[in-house]
Amino acid sequence: MAKKQFKAESKRLLEMMINSIYTQREIFLRELISNSSDAIDKIYYKALTDENLTFNKDDYYIKLTVDKDNRTLTISDTGIGMTKEELENNLGIIAKSGSLAFKNENEAKDGHNIIGQFGVGFYSAFMVADKVTVLSRALGGEEAYKWESTGADGYTIDEAEKASVGTEIILHIKPNTEDDQYDEFLEEYRLKSIIKKYSDFIRYPIKMDVTTHRPKEGSEGEFEEVKEEQTLNSMVPIWRKNKSELTDEDYENFYMEKRYGFDKPISHIHIKADGAVVYNAILFIPEKTPFDYYTKEYEKGLELYSNGVLIMEKCGDLLPDYFSFVKGMVDSEDLSLNISRELLQHDRQLKLIAKNIQSKIKSQLQSVLKDDREKYEKFYASFGRQLKFGVYNDYGMNKEVLQDLLLFTSSKEKKLVTLDEYVSRMPEDQKYIYYAAGESVDRLEKLPQTELVLDKGYEILYFTDDIDEFAIKMILNYKGKDFKSVSSGDLGIEPEEGDKDSKEAETANKELFEEMSRLLAGKVKAVKASKRLKTHPVCLSAEGEVSIEMEKVLNAMPS
Ligand code: ADP
Ligand code: MG
């Protein structure tokens, strides 16, 4: 068959990957093992839910085979396999997720960072192999196909023979060069340690014929070399393990392995609940927003397992919208395998789990806020807006959950503060929580309306995000203190000179004020003498519920 070209973007990525000086080549194995595991998950699930299929647990495994003479490493699995079309579609172009995330990881300009940390699925095979052969037979068919590629120049697909359903990936390991060593990927001990590091929790056995030495029969002190099949992974899923056995690195590896994100999460939550509802969960709070996060395309949700079997990839009902950034998985024995999406929505167990998870996320965020402010502020830069939307969208119903997680820039040192920090250092005579809404802190600082408040030594929250003021309107008050815009008519501050001056000013300049009103007719409601200005000659002030800034946002909204 004629060689087919890879789609353009995969070609670019492949070339970059192959050419980059790459320190963590070993992750190719994690990628291929995880694909095999996914493929076995699929067939396992089919067998559990389809009466016509019967399998033994022993039927599911992944096997590594090393052939040093031919320099090949083969990863075979008894998974669901791929049809000819699937070979074309799945291996011929880069999975959507991979390529998009790649484009958005702008910071890692040279590319090798991204690959180094996250891998790009199947393609990572080309980091260690100069030729990759994939032999696959899909469930339900007799025919098998062979996909072969030597890298960026394309691939071929031909008919082939394969005795059983599943996939075999044969990596033709590159020869060593002066700068790069590849021999290690043909060494048993090295493969063993890579599996232990990245794939220990894979639920199916990863087997390999390992060379061992045993005393030679009939001779003293002599040993002979034998091959013995060993299972390299412990197969205990990470969420079933004890937290004490696990390191931060284990969780981070899991996050990457699972492709929850391409960043390094700021925090993880490992839940082992055995109260009213029994479940295990591992949740992550990402640091960076996924590229589509603030778009309609973004789909929230956690992976849902029933007793170790993946039943849903994105269960949205487990997360409230305001925590839609959370990634991770939930495994519960109390859920049925065959449950449909619709039934799941009404599942009592699931509701309990969701509620539980929500409060765990909240307290985790609070403890990050308390213990590692810098980390929290990174998180907040990515997802703070979502929290504020959360307050606003539900008409303040969730303000109890969210208000203590909010940060705003304060006039004091221009640092981010919580509402609690603001209120707890308010002078006794301060009645309100003051805020000023506008485009940027720089501009707000120059706002004449802030003068009097700042002069009194009161702090002002600078709202520079258009959602800020809307969210605050939903919170209404915090610890008994109402919010007050610095541009509102009554600031609740007694001016030192009293009312007399402004009254006098108004009578004395009656004509001037009338003329100004006439000129600004339709633009302002009234022109009055102000009690709040110090150095500025004039300022705008609002009387109603809607501030000038909010009006701007509302006017800009498509109606
Ligand atoms: P991802 O795993 O993120 O989807 P990959 O590049 O790792 O991306 O794999 C692409 C696709 O190829 C997989 O989604 C799967 O459909 C298919 N695939 C890869 N390896 C196997 C395998 N061993 N068995 C069956 N399908 C596979
Ligand atoms: Mg994969």
How many β strands by DSSP? 19
Rg is 31 Å
Portion in beta strands? 15-25%
Which ligands, by name, code or SMILES, are bound? adenosine-5'-diphosphate, magnesium ion
Explain what the structure shows.
The chain contains 18 helices and 19 strands. It has helices spanning 8-19, 27-49, 84-92, 96-104, 112-118, 188-199, 248-257, 341-345, 348-371, 373-393, 399-402, 419-424, 441-445, 451-455, 468-475, 500-508, 510-519, 548-556, and strands at 62-67, 72-77, 129-137, 144-149, 155-160, 166-173, 206-215, 223-231, 267-274, 278-285, 302-306, 309-315, 327-332, 408-410, 416-417, 433-437, 460-463, 477-478, 481-485. The strands form three sheets. Strands 5-4-3-6-2-1-7-8 form an eight-stranded mixed β-sheet, covered by helices on one side. Helix 9 (348-371) crosses helix 10 and helix 10 (373-393) crosses helix 15 (468-475). The site of adenosine-5'-diphosphate has 17 residues, from helix 2 and helix 3.
Could you name the key traits of this structure?
34% helix, six-stranded mixed beta sheet, binds adenosine-5'-diphosphate, binds magnesium ion, eight-stranded mixed beta sheet, 559 residues
